[in-house]
């Protein structure tokens, strides 16, 4: 239970941080307006495109599952992290926009449902990364392959406008996905070559 609480705290930080970065990146928010057109505003836009994407939220659940270990605990941790992240995201949105939290209730419940369904599976995937062999390899590749797939199917940013922020975000995701996949494959190959003691 203590690890599940820790996973929820990580989720709170991720969700609140994502909402804050979104506000900093928007020229229409109180926080983002002064940064519009500056280097910091551009960096906030890139960071917003990175963290406010499906693969990043999936990586949150995979990451806490990997940290917690054990399939059941990891599944619970994945759910706790995504549900807490969702609650914190909408609570921070309400605070930053100076709007009632009740306006975000339907979205919160919808994404909590998705968090229960996908968080448990993604948490188990995270715990499976520790396993040797092909299962560990496939689990380890889940986030890099998921990020790359999202770049192909639904890249970050508006679909009709190519901006420097979207180019940077896509380049960073592709680089991270390739590096992550290379590290996972290298670990798999090294373990296969190392004789069991």
Let me know the average pLDDT.
Answer: 91
Tell me the number of helical segments per DSSP (H or I, 4 or more residues long). 7
Quote the beta fraction: under 5%
Shape: globular
Please render the helix and strand layout as text:
Layout: H1 2-25, H2 39-51, H3 54-68, H4 71-97, H5 105-128, H6 133-153, H7 164-193
Q: How would you describe the overall organization of this protein?
A:
The protein is an all-alpha fold. Helix content is 78%, strand content 0%. Helix 1 (2-25) crosses helix 2, helix 2 crosses helix 7 (164-193) and helix 4 (71-97) packs antiparallel against helix 5.
Key structural traits:
mainly alpha
Would you summarize the structure shown here?
The chain has 197 residues and is mostly helical. The protein has helices at 2-25, 39-51, 54-68, 71-97, 105-128, 133-153, 164-193.
